[in-house]
Amino acid sequence: MPHNGQESDKHDREFNAEVIHTTFSSATVKWNLLVDAEVYKVEKHHKYKGWEKIGWTSKDNYVIRNLEENFGYLLRVQALKCNASKSHYDTINTSPEIVACTLADLPSALALHRALKKSQQFLVKRLLRRRPNLIEYPGPNGYLPLCNAIAYGEVCIADYLLTIGASVHIGNLDNKRTPLHASPTPVRKAHNKAIQTRGGSINETSSVSAKGALLGKFSITRPKESICIP
């Protein structure tokens, strides 16, 4: 028999159904066992079909499997008790609707390359926060993200890549070209001058001078309309 009023509110708080764990293809829902409940029904909402039963359990949790990756689901749990005639189950409480979002798979170097090429700064940052070591993986053209950012004229993205530790010494593992080779002429000149001032060779690399050249001198090529997302 359904509850109402203050008694219903009390049972809703006691029920306390929630999502406690998600993976790429599953979600685990947990709730508090109710004194009068004998079995629990877990349901998933369908846009056209409405609420559909996923499964039954007498425990305080249920793992929903075979879900789509990177997708949101609307769920609820119903507590039921067998009626006096033992002919069917009556719903004694229904949990508030809860949302479960499955995880997205780890982003790939190709996904990062496409986001970089399309000048999608926010997406580039999101992908790298999810998988920071992508700055060490070359794109389909063989060049690392920093080198590609410079080649494509993506100044803000290049600044960000340098900030999170992208190497200024490696651009392409096959031909040994560095990000400075892909940078505009003023940047290369600034880097070479910085090294020669220290009495070194132009072919030598210096983390401080190279990074300084890319961050400082490269800004002179930045289009006026460029906006860097913090």
Largest sheet, strands/sense/barrel: 5 strands, antiparallel
What is the 3D form?
Answer: rod-shaped
Instruction: Kindly report the average pLDDT value.
Output: 78
Report the CATH architecture of the largest domain: Alpha Horseshoe
CATH fold assignment of the largest domain: Serine Threonine Protein Phosphatase 5, Tetratricopeptide repeat
Radius of gyration: 28 Å
CATH classification, class level of the largest domain? Mainly Alpha
Return the structural class.
alpha+beta
How many domains make up the coordinates? 2
Low-confidence stretches: 190-209, 217-227
Can you give the helix content as a percent range?
25-40%
**What percentage of the residues does DSSP assign to strands (E)?**
15-25%
Instruction: Give the name of the CATH superfamily of the largest domain.
Output: Ankyrin repeat-containing domain
Secondary structure tally: strands: 8
Distance between the termini: 55 Å
Number of helices: 8
Order of helices and strands: HEEEEEEEEHHHHHHH
